[in-house]
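Go through this chain.

——
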Amino acid sequence: MMTRWTGLTAIALLLAAGSVVVTAPADAQRQQKTAAPKFKFSKEVQPLLAQAQQAQQANDHATAIGLLNQADAIPTKNADDSYMIGMLRINSGLGTQDNALIEAGIEQALASGRVAPEDQPKFIRNLGSLALQRGDMAKAAQQFERYLAINPNDADVMAEIAELHRRANDNRRAVATLQQAIATKERTSGTKADETWYRRALAIAYDANMPAEIASASEALVKAYPNSTNWRDVLLIFRETSKLDDQTNLDALRLARAASALAGERDFFEYAETAVMRGLPGEAKAVIDEGVAAGALQLSKPVIRELNTAANSRLPADKASLPASEKEARTAKNGRVALGTGDAFLGYSQYDKAVEMYRLALEKGGVDADVVNTRIGIALARKGDKAGAEAALAAVKGAPRAQLARYWQIWSSQRG
């Protein structure tokens, strides 16, 4: 939440101090005989303002408030009178910690038309803060929007407005406003907006189950802050909110591995088990070994030991079959054998061979082009060919693979 009294206390106390309410000091009058006083108070109101000021200086706010109410009731009061009544009400509100009195004082000062243009944003912003504090979301949003009309580059207030939209269950607007705050912050400061803003946008979109906003917020988060935690959260949300078949899920797990976003036994075990079930013992073994090294998998556990044994037992035959599979792929009538052979090479991190087989699969046909292009992109991204990966992944069109391809593009573009 924003600071409560931005610039207000100093302004109120300054204007309420000394002889500003009464007349200009004598020496100032001698120096500027022809200068009009800054404020011109009516004869009926001026004595009451002076007495109220004196009461405030004696910390007698009850008397001061009574005098200000008397002054406010005078029908002939002018704009300067109203302005100073409002400012002195602010002082007594601050002195008594009465937010309602402060709010009334701000509104009266603004309504008088005598608040200096450079001070108006501070007053309006504090009105929004006071309304927010007492739970008046509609008024808070109204005042913050009014403030932004004057200060359109204040990203912090945009972020506050986004929260107000969220509280009003206007979640789509909340995400859009928060993304606007991020863009404004980065445009005006030349630095990245805080990571919490990116994560907040994703959280709102996820909680409200808004697929388009989830995608945009997810991409923005891992572009700006591509750490392993964010990659894991983004991919978990993607896998949870998308209807993924086993093959697409496997490619999502591959990205989690590439982004160092596998964490804990569940992640490593699911990936390794999926790879074994898809006939990729080389990839499964590599994941198991990484999980053991990370302390996430314990070979002493029967289920982990069994999975490791399954991968190890299939490795020799699988490796030995690769030359024959490659030869068969070249003579086959369609590209299915080439696709399977490419998957095997990908699992053994033989990326050039994998790309060769995948391209053969596309050439021969009979395969899902989106799957093949995804994996060409994965292989090229893993070997560091950013341009090649970008081109292959851009060719992926079908949902949900197109979204996964965009995540792979982001990861590939960030490689050193």
